[in-house]
Design brief:
Blueprint: H1 26-52, H2 54-73, H3 76-91, H4 105-115, H5 127-135, H6 143-162
Helix pairs in contact: 2-3, 2-6, 3-4, 3-6
InterPro entries: DUF4381 (IPR025489)
Transmembrane segments: 28-47
Protein name: DUF4381 domain-containing protein
Length: 176
């Protein structure tokens, strides 16, 4: 045996270099690509839904404007006429309400109520009062007429908000 100390000849263990986090392995690249594709599909679906519902946002804004104008002027005939016009324009976007587009007055309201899905708000039907407002030259602004106007405006807004998105979008925001 050798007189030298054998432990002095030993050296420290050298560790290999740490594994770098960049560039990632191919599996991580694939996962990243799949996540980006999924995020793109979700964004596209959200955008399409937003675009399909633009008629609803425009109609609700018009109905709220008509309601505010009614609150200021208390002109029930103008508010009722405006609400019926907006409802007719909304009906163009839904195949369920296709027959309502050509109707007016109480027939329009009856058709919208008849084709509304269960759980949707129904519009108030008072044909005699509605015909008096729409076609009589010198109608009186009665309390009954004001109550009907308020019901119609709130019911129209609730009906428009409860409608499902149409299958195909209309021709544009300006159409509502």
């Amino acid at each position: 045996m050798n007189a030298e100390d054998p432990l002095a000849a030993l050296r420290d263990i050298t560790l290999p270099e740490a594994v770098s986090w960049w560039p990632p392995a191919p599996g991580w690249w694939l996962l990243l690509a799949l996540l980006l594709a999924l995020a793109g599909l979700l964004l596209h679906a959200a955008w399409r839904r937003y675009q399909r519902n633009r008629y609803r946002r425009a109609a609700v804004a018009l109905l709220r404007t008509a309601s505010q104008h009614y609150q200021q002027s208390r002109d029930a005939a103008a508010a009722i006429t405006t609400a019926l016009d907006i409802l007719r324009r909304v009906a163009r976007y839904h195949r369920h309400f296709a027959e309502a587009v050509a109707l007016s007055g109480s027939e329009l309201i009856a058709s919208l109520n008849r084709h509304a899905r269960s759980g949707m708000a129904l519009l108030p039907e008072q044909p005699a009062l509605l015909e008096q407002v729409l076609y009589a030259a010198g109608h009186q602004q009665s309390e009954q007429l004001h109550h009907y106007c308020e019901q119609l405006l709130s019911g129209a807004e609730a009906l428009v908000q409860a409608l499902p998105a149409p299958d195909t979008a209309g021709s544009g925001v300006g159409d509502v």
